[in-house]
Amino acid sequence: xxxxxxxxxxxxxxxxxxxxxxxxxxxxxxxxxxxxxxxxxxxxxxxxxxxxxxxxxxxxxxxxxxxxxxxxxxxxxxxxxxxxxxxxxxxxxxxxxxxxxxxxxxxxxxxxxxxxxxxxxxxxxxxxxxxxxxxxxxxxxxxxxxxxxxxxxxxxxxxxxxxxxxxxxxxxxxxxxxxxxxxxxxxxxxxxxxxxxxxxxxxxxxxxxxxxxxxxxxxxxxxxxxxxxxxxxx
Length: 234
Fold this sequence. Notes:
By secondary structure, the protein is an alpha+beta fold. It contains 5 helices and 16 strands. Helix content is about 25%, strand content about 30%. About 40% of the residues are buried.
């Protein structure tokens, strides 16, 4: 994926160095995006923020709406090429939105948007729950997996999703079913939609044949992925 937009304007003498958002983060001007993508290249975001809580995320959207600037969403930045000209408006990086709740009695898993989906695959395997083995080779977040219906080895996110919680630019929360999301092969109605953002997803796993077996299957998926798509290389 390539992001190319008109270059951000240089910060003026009157531009504040940062805009505090809540108690845990701040919106900063002219932040280089090279360190936030797997290719390690790219120009600056006119404004950049990495919220840690849902409340901070709501405040970020409110700020962007009040400022009248576009919003670009950024997860782990895998396979993302940003123009050297940079990106205008506010770039919201979700990688600090991490939290999981796992019901080991039912296999119901709730994960925040910034949680790496590969990490969830290992968590599930350690507990003997199956269904996420394929995700161990996906270098992205839960939010991205929902938006693009990520998948591998003849399965995909839509097969496991119970519902997804989203936040709109107006700060309202929505809970959408797989049918609402209009899943198709490697896409959903959220693809390219910057008016709302996945905040968390609820997944339903299935009982596996034991933690050792599921872990072995997960490791095999990882090895196949590394052999065919060495994503540790830029």
